[in-house]
Amino acid sequence: MEEKKKFNKQDYDNKYIKENKDRINFLMAKGTKTLIKAASDNLGITPSEFIREAISEKLDNVKDEIPPEIIPNLMEWLKNHGHTDAEIVDCLRYLGRKEENF
After folding, report:
1. 39 — phi, psi (to 5°)?
2. pLDDT tens across 5-63, in order?
3. Do the Cβ atoms of 66 and 96 come closer than 8 Å?
4. d(CA 53, CA 59)
5. Helix (H), strand (E) counts: the chain
6. In terms of pTM, does the model score above 0.90?
7. Alpha helices in the chain, H assignment, sequence order
């Protein structure tokens, strides 16, 4: 008779994490962990969630920025396709705008 394999929650969780999550380990200045813990406790969230939210906010801020290294190529392409200097400036202003400022 075949023996039924017992469910192992730890193995299940480890497999899920390996397939669905990324792990990042990093070092911070001594005392930072205490500050993060205090701030997260004050907000009623875990330190991990505090760090994830901080990183998400930072990524939201940088995803809309134009990488500086592509601006000269963009300007050249626009110029080669018949756009005036004024149109190029307007284009760059438009691309770098904050929604409410343009």
Report:
1. -65, -40
2. 899 999 999 999 999 988 888 899 999 999 999 999 999 999 999 999 999 888 877 76
3. yes
4. 10
5. 5, 0
6. no
7. 9-20, 32-43, 47-63, 71-80, 85-95
d(CA 12, CA 86): 60
Name, in order, each residue with C-beta under 8 angstroms of 95's C-beta and a sequence gap of 6 or more: 66
Q: Please give the torsion angle defined by the CA atoms of residues 14, 16, 43 and 100, in that order, rounded to the nearest 10 degrees.
A: 140
Whole-angstrom distance, CA of residue 97 vs CA of residue 94: 5
Of the candidates 82, 59, 78, the residue with the CA atom closest to the CA atom of residue 93: 78
What's the token pair of residue 87?
Answer: 């149109």
